[in-house]
Design brief:
alpha+beta, globular
């Protein structure tokens, strides 16, 4: 009987340990605002013109990531997509990312100098969906708000390959070229499927 109970206790302990290990890692990365927090996000004063200048000075591209509490698509990106080693490395090494809360009250200064809350800025930019990745050029003359200055806006959750290709396309200034993102992504996808590399 003692052996049986000992075996049951060991099995129960093993099961509990396995369940704890299986808990999603993102649960420990939630901020007080209910948004996912990552090491590659920059906590700034949210003066977007200054953030852009800092990003460019450090050889990085500036991206604003708009999210909201309880967003299942944001969760998908943070659990399934952003942690991919290649994507995470790009976000860390090549991008300067500032997170905005779609319904937040933190003060933000838009690129044209207008000061408002996060939620007011999101309305000003006309952003309706989360997550939304908004990419900017390397410089700004301070005359335009972010929605006019942005070179690419990607609303919604996408898979790893789409996100990876989008991040590369922006780094390559693809938005200034002749090949639209859809064709770029299809070419990259077909090359990967054929095993011929990324080109």
């Amino acid at each position: 009987m003692r052996t049986l109970l000992g075996g049951m206790a060991t099995s129960l302990a093993s099961g509990v340990a396995a369940a704890l290990i299986a808990l999603p890692l993102w649960a420990a990365e939630m901020g007080d605002d209910g948004l996912h927090k990552t090491a590659w996000m920059h906590d700034t004063f949210r003066d977007l013109g200054e953030d852009l200048a800092e990003a460019t000075a450090n050889g990085k591209r500036f991206m604003v990531l708009i999210e909201q509490r309880g967003c299942i698509y944001c969760e998908k990106m943070h659990t399934d997509v952003f942690p991919d080693p290649e994507i995470e490395a790009m976000l860390t090494d090549d991008y300067f990312v500032v997170q905005l809360n779609m319904f937040g009250d933190v003060e933000v200064t838009d690129f044209d100098g207008e000061v408002m809350t996060e939620k007011e800025l999101v309305r000003r930019w006309g952003a309706l969906f989360t997550p939304m990745m908004v990419f900017f050029p390397e410089t700004s003359d301070g005359s335009e708000p972010g929605n006019r200055l942005a070179v690419v806006q990607m609303p919604g959750a996408f898979g790893k390959s789409t996100t990876y290709d989008l991040l590369n396309w922006v780094l390559e200034d693809g938005y200034d070229g002749e090949e639209p993102f859809q064709k770029y992504h299809a070419r990259k996808h077909n090359a990967r499927a054929a095993g011929t590399g990324s080109d």
